[in-house]
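Milestone 3.1: sequence recovery, worked example.
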């Protein structure tokens, strides 16, 4: 796990303090980051069987 990358994303993109980022579990961090990507249109929706015409 790249700690520098987690700190960069957490502090710059998510606007948390370094202390907040280091206090999060990896699961919580990635749930918040995933939601951030979806809310800002940066994540493509995965294609599933429900998306077929």
């Amino acid at each position: 796990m790249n700690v520098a990358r987690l700190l960069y994303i957490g502090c710059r993109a998510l606007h948390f303090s370094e202390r907040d980022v280091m206090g999060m579990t990896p699961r919580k961090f990635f749930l918040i980051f995933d939601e951030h990507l979806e809310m800002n249109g940066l994540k493509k929706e995965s294609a599933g069987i429900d998306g077929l015409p």
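The chain has a mean pLDDT of 91. The two ends are 39 Å apart (CA to CA).
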